[in-house]
Amino acid sequence: MTPLAQAPHGFLSPTGVEIAFLLVGLVTFGAALVTVTTRQLVHAALWLVVALGGLAVEYLLLTAEFIAWVQVLIYVGSVVVLLLFGLMLTKAPIGRSPDADSGNRWVALVVAVAAAAALVWVVVDAFRTTWINLDGAAAGSTKVTGASLFQNWVLPFEALSVLLLAALVGAIVLSRKAKAESAPPPVNGRAVTQSSPSVTGSGIHPIVQRAEKKTEKKTEQESEQEGAR
Amino acid sequence: MNVALRLLVVFVVFLTFPLIVGQTEHKVMAHMQGRLGPMYAGGFHGWAQLIADGVKFAQKEDVVPAGADRRVFQLAPAVSLLPYLLVLLAIPIGPGEGAVGQVLDAGVFFVLAVMGVGVLGSLMAGWASANKFSLLGGLRTAAQLLAYELPMLLAAASVAMAAGTVSLPGIVGSFHWWWLPWQLTGGLVFFVAGLAELQRPPFDMPVADSEIIFGAYTEYTGLRFALFLLAEYAGIVVLCGLTTVLFLGGWHGPWGADGLGWLWTLLKTALLAFVVIWLRVTYPRLREDQLQKFSWTLLVPLSLAQIALTGIVKVVIS
After folding, report:
1. ipTM exceeding 0.90?
2. pLDDT by residue (tens digit) across B178-211?
């Protein structure tokens, strides 16, 4: 991000890129709103795809090509696929889920607004007078990103990778513990256990278990089954 | 060449190459299994079979099941097909600016990211069909993508390390013949993981027609079903093109590399497409748990070993 001092910039005569940035931002915001308000669970996941894809386009418009593609690769290509995979294991119906609502929604709204305000304030404060020169070399190319990441930000980068490693080990520990506790697979979980990605003999996949907990709450019929077991 | 012409060429390639692969599959499979295959349509060895298939698909009624999620159901084939068009834009077939749809700074990331998006189409189809076989197919698709995305990325990262760039033309530009043995493991892992991502035999459990009918596509008819099939063949073209560009040296060849480079790219791509068809005819389908085990216990360690090897050689020669 090269600050440009020589040319005056203003908000009153926007360029094409700035207008596009604003429009894509509005679409992203709208998609994000629908994601948290819709009662159709899978639709929420698909609107999340739109929101995350919109973010990738915003990165592109800010000339950060590398970050944009990584955003698509990790979030759209993997995280949403994982979400959809989890949703398919639940009994989410086609159409509205009658119980897809939370009593905490006002608290959630307050937390969301507070978090958004903090982030907006930090970003505005940090980049207030910074303008990206679109005519010069891309400021967010892979080379620039890599150089700044591994020269200036090595320590946070490594700290983050240790954090991810800890999360990974934690996930393995949790899934192994679950194996010891639940010896026979639950009745209503058998069908999904077979098609779960677990390697033979590794017991029940954590996603399956979480899904079961959710469905337990959902219908009385199922909790009866669980009780009978 | 100006931009419009290049985009047009990419679009024509997108429309024709998958059909050529499809027709080749008909004939190659027929020869390998000692049967005739299409012989009537068009007169000469059934060359017009795919056109006839297309006409047939277009005539069929487009049925949406009553219980389905209409919009998602109807949108799924497009989500599945379009990413491959975008990927084709970034694959260089010859040296220079004119031989690639669009030069991208982070081409490797772009192609892998967009290829992963195509799988969302299968997931949408699997869920929105309101059919248990479709749902099972969707589940298997998701599990398969999560398992095979990682080795594919790691193998591509190995080449990027070797070349010192993540742009596709840049990678082919710095190719030397001795990269073939050096990156051999990575190349195999990439190709196999790519086959799994495309759900081609022997990794076709998500569509396994003899156990779960046709997986996520069970409820589809007519043109929308044809679009899914087209996505599969476009995927073959893209995967073979990418393997050629990343691991087989793209436009480099023993001779005639100046001016005829694009021919080398096409030749290698066609050869790989033949191998894809060959594998379909010769290998039985893996079981779902075997598939997961194959990825996590074999492909991931192999690709990590390849990255280590690439790093060591890179440090030694520099």
Report:
1. no
2. 888 888 888 999 999 988 888 888 888 777 777 7
A221 touches chain B (CB under 8 A): no
DSSP code, position B284: P
A-chain CB neighbours of B128 within 8 Å are 42, 94
Instruction: From residue B68, give the alpha-carbon distance in Å to each of A13, B81, B305.
Output: 48, 21, 46
Q: Which CA distances in Å does A189 have to A41, A90, A226, B141, B224? A: 20, 10, 10, 19, 33
Could you give the CA distance from residue A55 to residue A67 in angstroms, rounded to a whole number? Answer: 10
The pLDDT tens digits for B249-269 are 877 777 766 677 778 888 888
Host domain of residue A187: 153-221
The answer to the question of residue A162 being in a domain is yes
Query: Kindly report the CA angle at A119 between A113 and A125, in degrees rounded to 5?
Result: 130
Is residue A131 exposed (0-12), middle (13-18) or buried (19+ Cβ within 10 Å)? Answer: middle
For A65, the closest of B105, B119, B138 (CB atoms) is B105
> Residue A72: its chain B contacts at CB < 8 A?
113-114, 116-117
Looking at the complex, report in whole angstroms how far the Cα of residue A192 sits from the nearest Cα belonging to chain B.
Answer: 9
Phi/psi zone of residue A223: left (φ > 0), alpha (ψ -120 to 50 degrees), beta? Answer: alpha
Q: Is residue A212 part of a domain?
A: yes
Output the six-digit token pair for A60: 């592109």
Is the entire prediction scored with pTM above 0.90?
A: no
Note if the bond before B202 is cis, omega within 30 degrees: yes
Q: How many helices (H) and strands (E) does chain A have?
A: 10, 0
CA distance to partner chain A, nearest, from residue B86 (Å): 13
Domain-by-domain residue ranges, chain B?
Answer: 63-317
- Stated as kind and residue range, the H or E segment containing A136 is none
Distance CA B110, CA B84 (A): 11
Q: How many structural domains comprise chain A? A: 1
Residue A124 counted as domain residue: no
- Residues of chain A contacting B117 with CB distance shorter than 8 Å: 72, 76-77
The answer to whether B139 touches B126, Cβ cutoff 8 Å, is: yes
